[in-house]
Design a protein that fits this description.
2 copies of one chain form a homodimer. Chain A has about 190 residues and is mainly α. The first copy, chain A, has 3 helices and no strands. Chains A, B: This is DCC-interacting protein 13-beta.
Chain lengths: ~190, ~190
């Protein structure tokens, strides 16, 4: 199982790396969409500002003002559209992947740590047990040590089950985690 | 005419200021659109990278890979679209206003400068003429100075005509200059 474990671990390491890169890119797309909303908002405001400039020589300016105002309206609508898309992207594209990273991937690394500690404890107990002097008068101590070995083994076994289980579940969650943001992105188009 | 001139000048100053602000905003919109293209390009590449990760535990990965590839294709098409829009914005929205600023507004300020120099020269000539001693033996010098006054007045008159003419023309070009980028923007949507 040790080598199968290392395959699982490598896989989950790869997935974490890929997830981080993908998340960065998704956040870049979201950032661009969000900036698009802000830029069009500024443009819409600026077009309305033309009127406030109060050009003294307003020959034909009424036409310009009216036209710019109707442009400002169109740009304002585009702005709502862009901002709406940005919000949708945040909710249904970036957020699920962040959650996957924070919840599933972080869980894996926590469980890995717990499993490592349990393994160390179990090994330490075994070393202590093996170093006991082989004299008869140590029977009581020996029995205590055996209990400790058994206890730490149980603990390690439990931690390993949780860890393997999470690694295995990750394989299934991965698929959803990879596809969900893209579905969200497609919806936001 | 002096006070009418100052109205024209104030107007053109206002217009320059407004043009600079508008240009900044248009460039911001263009920048956002351009970033949108770059971000989607990166996303499309990243989706294809999933396959190259070569996850050892490829249970169900073929499906994920195929789906991500088809997403990558869609995102790639969006990328071309965004990049195309960005190019169109550069050509038909930002460029016309840059040209207006570089050509029309710069011409005004150049002509204003020339007009100012010509005015100074004419005034200097008049001052010199008025300070001539009123003696008869200075008739020759006086005639020369009168010629200079007449010459600088002609020059100043010419410069003023060009300057006024450009200020006046600006009033007409202004309308096109303000509306053209917005037409370009609307086309790019």
């Amino acid at each position: 199982t040790r080598s199968l474990l290392s395959v699982f671990e490598e896989d989950s390491g790869n997935l974490t790396e890929y997830t981080n890169q993908l998340l960065q890119t998704l956040q870049r797309v979201f950032g661009a969409q969000s900036e698009m909303g802000l830029a069009t908002e500024q443009l819409s405001r600026q077009l309305l500002d033309y009127e406030k400039k109060n050009f003294a020589l307003g020959k034909g300016d009424e036409e310009v003002i009216t036209t710019l105002q109707s442009f400002a309206k169109t740009v304002g609508e585009l702005n709502s559209l862009h901002s709406g898309l940005a919000n949708q992207m945040a909710d249904s594209m970036v957020f699920p992947l962040i959650q996957f990273r924070e919840k599933d991937l972080t869980e894996i690394s926590t469980l890995k740590e717990i499993f490592g500690i349990a393994t160390d404890e179990h090994e330490a107990a075994m070393v202590k047990y093996s170093r006991l002097p082989k004299k008869k008068e140590n029977e009581k101590l020996k029995a205590d040590m055996m209990k400790e070995v058994a206890y730490t083994r149980r603990k390690q076994h439990q931690a390993s089950l949780q860890y393997y289980c999470a690694l295995n579940a990750l394989q299934y969650r991965k698929r959803v985690a990879m596809l969900e943001p893209m579905l969200g992105y497609t919806q936001a188009q």
